[in-house]
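Hi R.,

Here's the chain you asked about this morning:
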Amino acid sequence: MYSTKRMLGQGIKYGSLILGAFVALVPIVIVFFTSFKTPEEYRLSNSLAPPADFFNFENYRRAFVEGNMLIGFLNTAFILLASIIGAILIGTMIAYVLSRFQFRGSKLIMGAFLIATLIPSVTTQVATFQIINQLGLFNTRMSVILLNLGTDIISVYIFLQFLRTISIQLDESAMLDGASYFTIFSRIILPLLMPAIVTVFIVKGVNIYNDFYLPFLYMPKEGLEVISTALFKFKGPYGSQWEVISAAIMIAIIPTLITFLSLQKYIYNGFTQGSVK
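And the predicted structure, written out as tokens:
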């Protein structure tokens, strides 16, 4: 009886895992197959049917050349690095202050972060757009970078959980040796926060890399395309070139896939360690 229940439990567990993997992989497989199909083949064949020629790279050539994906990659990389570095520095500083210093209003600050996450960003876009426009940042990369510098509560929470695992005696020992708060933060806290920093880098970096709304709204000028807005060139009012869009999607996936596979152990460690006080 116990063996039957155990086998049933194992079957349900692995069956749900296989089903979840299937649901996640089927759209990627469809996009991958579509990226090698000709327009006629795409219209006449089934979505799950493999292409007749896996060496048909015409869609990839068109996506890269006509979509200005090289410029898109450069703009995306610049915005991503500037936004992530700034957001991590601001987030770690906020977490360090909230974790190490006792002062009136600390809980109020955390509450303000929580309240800000409850307000849909779309409802504030009119005011935000007016501010960006008055600052003279419309149609510049700095507009999106400035908006991405806002530190979200998830990043602060991850940093806070890691800081609570770092003994405050390290800070006290450094202060006895004459170290300033800035020295303690830069030479002790930041190196020990590296797993959390990598976690935030991936989580926030993927969101910035895939973001379409902010670049489309604040950087519509030709030559300021990012990866997400470059795909939009192949969609028009009289039809969409889905086979070319699929090829562009596969090109855009490559950097994210390589980064995730390279840093996945840091991501898992960051979430598991950050969840334990």
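The beta strands are 235-236, 239-240.

Let me know if you need anything else.
M.
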